[in-house]
Structure formats: structure tokens, C-alpha cells
Amino acid sequence: MDKAGFLEDKYGPDGYDPGLYVHTDLANSIDGFGAVTDEHIGEFHKQGFLSIQNAFSQDEVEGAIDAVSHLIAGQKEDFKGVQFEKGTRDYLANGDDLQREVLVRKLTRFVGFDTRLDVLGENEKLLKILTQVMGESPKLFANQAMLKPPGIGREKPWHQDHAYFDLPLDTCIVSAWVALDNATPENGCMHVIPGSHLDGPVVHFNRRDWQICDTDVARDRITAVPLSPGGVLLWHGRLHHGTPANHSDKRRRALQLHYVPSSVEKNEQGARLAVFGSDGKDVTC
Ligand SMILES: O=C(O)CCC(=O)C(=O)O
After folding, report:
1. Domain tally for the chain?
2. In CATH, what number is assigned to the domain containing residue 167?
3. What's the whole-model pTM score?
């Protein structure tokens, strides 16, 4: 039996030990971009993340959701970044447009296709906070929409974002994850290990994904970060984080924007693999 078959037999269709996402804590959140103080920036550097509720308005969230639906429905001809959840081929053949939309797992590189999405990543208050964190103005380096379908949305195993990006090791990468639905532990909200960004790069392996070894996850320090629509989670590129499978009947849609200091240039892939492990050739986050 192959490894995937063995894990399914042991843990059921998710293929992972549910103990990997039992949180010991829930994150505290700040209310709105305007409430972020210098102390919060210091907290980001200590804990590796900052959770901000009500960062974007209901109108902005509704606009973003509509834009995501348009991209999935093929209304922007040049957009080719739709990826469906694994194992959905049979449903896709027979489903209507809404059923197809619900089965999408990911949109890659959505920025530039709809201003209702672009404005979120260009928000001045967000960019100001990123500048404070990085000590330099930020530039957008990568972007994806992560859409965990109800019932079948798979886990995104624990990882460090830096393991996916060919950037110098001392780069302050900051990821901004914008919730478009209520994100809860039940439908696959973000889980983080506070302070883990200070432990340096960790070797990643190709197991259920390009990930940190399950035995390297600090299970006694898992913090879940529930967010309401319009909430944002910022985290450092070396923070250990992951999301469990969506076992609920609710969708969990989010936009993910990865920023780096504007002076940073890309590195050779070999430099990344030498640190994060050679399994990681050509992976995408
Ligand atoms: O949104 C998710 O489920 C996981 C996103 C994430 O951690 C990533 O892609 O780096």
C-alpha cells in the first residue's frame, strides 16, 4: 500500500491526524486597520502575526466575492488560474455553474483581472502597516484566492511561506489573508504557532503537500484565528501555519496577498532548496 493509502486507512479520508489542528488558544484581534499601534507592530515581530477584524467593509467583501465568481465563471477570458478541489471531476461533469463554483479550491494570480480585487491589496492603511512592519515600502510578490469547499475542502498542511518563495533568507515576507466568509475552526480557519517565525527555516517534505513534518508541529502552542468577513490576518513568512479540512456545510473563501520589501530581488531556486529541502523543486504555494 502506498503512503497516502496507509494514511487514509489510519485517519479516514482527510489522511491526517486531527490532533494537528486542536487549538490551545484563540487569537485576539484588533478592530480595524486604524486601531493598529506601534505596540501591535512590536507584537507582530514577537508573535509573528496580527489579526485585524473589520479591516474591509461589507461592500468591499461583497465586491470581492462577486469578482471571484466572475473569474470562476470565465468572464475574464485571459484568466486561466482556476484549480478545482481534488477528486471532484465526476461532479464537475454534471454540475451547474453554482456547483462548479463551490468546488473550486484555488485561483492563482488573480491580481490585475478585476479592480474590486485589486483595491484590497492596494489599501493605503494596509500598505502603511506593512511599511511599519518591514521598515520599507512593500511590493506585492504573489497572490492567490484560497477557497475551501464545504465538506470536501482539503487541509493545507503546516508550512512556512518562505519555503515556497525564491527570496533571500533574511527577507521580511508578510502574507495578508483576507477572509471573505466567516472563517472558523470548523470550516478551516488559519491555525498558527505563535513565535515560530523566530525558530528559523524548517526543512519541508513532500507528503500531503510541501510541508513541515507532522512531528515538527508544536501541538501544545496551536492558536486558531477565526475571522469575520473583511477581517485580515498578517503573518511573517517564517511563521508555522496551516488550515484543517472543511468538514462543515459552509464555504471558507479567502484572498491571500504576499508582500516583500520593495528593494528585494528574487534568488536562485537552489538557494531555497538548500535550506528548505530539495523536495521543494517547482512547488507553488
Ligand atoms: O487558506 C488556506 O487554507 C491556506 C493558505 C496558506 O496557508 C497558504 O497558501 O500559504
Report:
1. 1
2. 2.60.120.620
3. 0.93
